[in-house]
From TrEMBL:
Keywords: Calcium, Disulfide bond, Hydrolase, Membrane, Protease, Serine protease, Signal, Transmembrane, Transmembrane helix, Zymogen. The chain crosses the membrane at residues 12-31. The lineage of its organism: Eukaryota, Metazoa, Chordata, Craniata, Vertebrata. This is trypsin. GO terms for cellular component: extracellular space.
Length: 295
């Protein structure tokens, strides 16, 4: 992703834990994928770091200017199984979210790509076997052909399940959008990402946040030169509530339709730095064509 502009960072996600950086200025882009033992920070320019304090927290990510691991900051624990289309992408650990759009296909973020993924449906507490889960391996993992890892344009991915999900009260699909997201509309964001804007606290139970869709003008003003027509912003310009690391790939739903995919942001819940989401409406034809070609 392109340099989002210089900003003070409390920390940056690194291999095996968190690094707290003092008095540093980082031209960073942070995605919102969950910790996976590899660096998730993308830089367009070199970074100068002052003295570091390495924290011995295995698998902990500290909020940095852009996160690759999303969770919900300032939200609440979702009512159990109230978000039945939400899935957890697992590779020995939860690393991203996704949305079930039909019995055999899931939508997520392209930056969540891995060669092997197990899709976990019907989850609420990802650390407890609750008896409602369906664990299904991915048969095909298809990134958008024009995905740009530097700008995060076209940050969308499709996963074909190796067998159809069983649709029930705890596992169901979400509709694709019939119109683009409307400014001012209320949206529901969900995920198992970090709940702290500074520091790290990854919940076991699914978190929810209700937030407004911002106008494209507000979104572009928050990230000058970084917002494409395939992106939109949701959140509060005053800060305090946002998706975060570990939420990547998860759903943004408005009026019963999947309007967005958790993608990136400058830190988490920072003032005038709302979350940025992939605009699913722009990809409805690609989604349908890709599913038809891989059925």
């Amino acid at each position: 992703m392109q340099d989002p502009g210089k900003g003070k960072a409390a920390g940056v996600f690194v291999l095996g834990g968190a690094v707290t950086l003092t008095s540093q200025t980082l031209p960073l882009l942070i995605l919102r994928r969950y910790k996976d033992g590899s660096s998730t920070t993308s830089q367009a320019h070199s970074t100068t770091m002052n003295p570091l304090l390495i924290l011995a927290f295995v698998g902990v990510a500290v909020a940095a200017p852009f996160d690759d691991d999303d969770k919900i900051v300032g939200g609440y624990t979702c009512e159990e199984n109230s978000v039945p289309y939400q899935v957890s992408l697992n590779s020995g650990y939860h690393f991203c979210g996704g949305s079930l759009i039909n019995e055999q296909w899931v939508v997520s973020a392209a930056h969540c790509y891995k060669t092997r993924i197990q899709v976990r449906l019907g989850e609420h507490n990802i650390e407890v076997l609750e008896g409602t889960e369906q664990f299904i391996n991915a048969a095909k993992i298809i990134r958008h052909p024009d995905y740009d890892r530097k700008t995060l344009n076209n940050d969308i991915l499709l996963i074909k399940l190796s067998s159809p999900a069983v649709i029930n009260a705890r596992v169901s699909t979400i509709s694709l959008p019939t119109a683009p997201p409307a400014a001012g509309a209320e949206a529901l964001i969900s995920g198992w990402g970090n709940t702290l804007s500074s520091g790290a606290d990854y919940p076991d139970e699914l978190q929810c946040l209700e937030a407004p869709v911002l106008s494209q003008a507000e979104c572009e003003a928050s990230y000058p030169g970084k917002i494409t027509s395939n992106m939109f912003c949701v959140g509060f310009l005053e800060g305090g509530k946002d998706s975060c690391q570990g939420d990547s790939g998860g759903p943004v739903v408005s009026n019963g339709q999947l309007q967005g995919i958790v993608s990136w942001g400058y830190g988490c819940a920072q003032k005038n730095r709302p979350g940025v989401y992939t605009k699913v409406y722009n990809y409805v034809d690609w989604i349908r064509d890709t599913i038809a070609a891989n059925s």
